[in-house]
Amino acid sequence: MQNSQNNILNDIEAIGKIPAVAHILEIVCNITGMGFSAVARVTSDKWIACEVKDSINFGLVTGGELKLETTICNEIRQHQNPVIIDDVATDLHFSHHQTPKMYGFRSYISMPIILKNGDFFGTLCAIDPSPAKVNTPSTISTFRMFADLIAFHLDAVEQLAASEEKLQQELETAVLREQFIAILGHDLRNPLNAISSSAQLLDRLNHEDRSHRLVNIIRDSSYRINGLIENMLDFASGRLGGGISISLNQDENLEKILIQVVDEMQAVWPDRNIKLNFDFQSPVIADGKRVAQLFSNLLGNALNYSPPESTIEVTAFSNAKEFNLFVANEGKKIPDAAMERLFQPFSRGEVEPNQKGLGLGLYIASEIANAHGGELSVSSTDDKTCFTLIIPTNDSSK
């Protein structure tokens, strides 16, 4: 019952937000010579005046209610056709109707207001205690035009309200996004940095083999957690913000950057063999930190999904046209179904129990490639999987 009442109040408010309604009611009275006009909200159990023009002291004001069963609008709600009466006294159907007698009118016109979605809203109506010539094509077409205009404005008001609600939700989402990114970027990184620093300190102070193994486990876990945080930060910025941003630098020393990433990975996987083949003949305009992040994701992926005794092959070269990077590893073929969604977020191929992650690494790497105007692709056979990055050597992507 409370919801129904709230809906009625919202409908009255919606009509009140349409400045044209007051002018429409005044025009209706002027062209018909009738003294009372109104926009009525008619439901299955209520007749409510949303806006009123009253020069005959009918006594009904905005928000006023008539008993539904006593109104002709109740019948219009059911058949959704207009009702037009020049003079009740000479009208065959309404001369003995209860409504004209109850409310003391002789002329009457009421046009249904049908919303864009087909719902019946109510009526645009007018009455007068004297006869009036209203059953004419021009008057009927004018009322129909005004009813359609009111319906149009009601739809516009509803759409505006929906847009405002959506905007408010987006603002709330933006606040949550900023809080989420802050938690990832600050609150999680602080204890992670403490763990990583403590592991390094323990490694220096204690040289026992068992302690050394435990320190390596801590360091490895810290490295993987940091990678997860980086990927989630970029995912949040890319999907909830304006996309992954890059800062292009002239003549970026990508060879040095790639070697640094390999050294960091080698510290985490000291027993793995990584073979490098570099040939940089032309300078590359790129975001070095982003390329390092992309390469770290690809190399980490290769280390995770290849046999421990195998060799990871990293090939990189640049020429006057483009920069190429290949990261190849032995291992199982990536299934065709997984290949189709490999660069989508939260999507990973078949994994072993120790291969954990969120499935964001390859998505982030692909987005970094796109931001450079390049492309990241993959090929996979029964023997080898190879990820290929190609980006323009210059800034033609901009």
UniProtKB/TrEMBL annotation:
InterPro entries: GAF (IPR003018), GAF-like_dom_sf (IPR029016), HATPase_C_sf (IPR036890), HATPase_dom (IPR003594), His_kinase_dom (IPR005467), HisK_dim/P_dom (IPR003661), HisK_dim/P_sf (IPR036097), Sensor_HK_Regulatory (IPR050736). SMART domains: GAF, HATPase_c, HisKA. Its EC number is 2.7.13.3. Residues 183-395 form the Histidine kinase domain. It comes from Pedobacter petrophilus. This is histidine kinase. The keyword Plastid does not apply. GO terms for molecular function: phosphorelay sensor kinase activity. Pfam families: GAF (PF01590), HATPase_c (PF02518), HisKA (PF00512). Keywords: Kinase, Phosphoprotein, Transferase, Two-component regulatory system. It catalyses: ATP + protein L-histidine = ADP + protein N-phospho-L-histidine. CDD domains: HATPase, HisKA. The keyword Transmembrane does not apply.
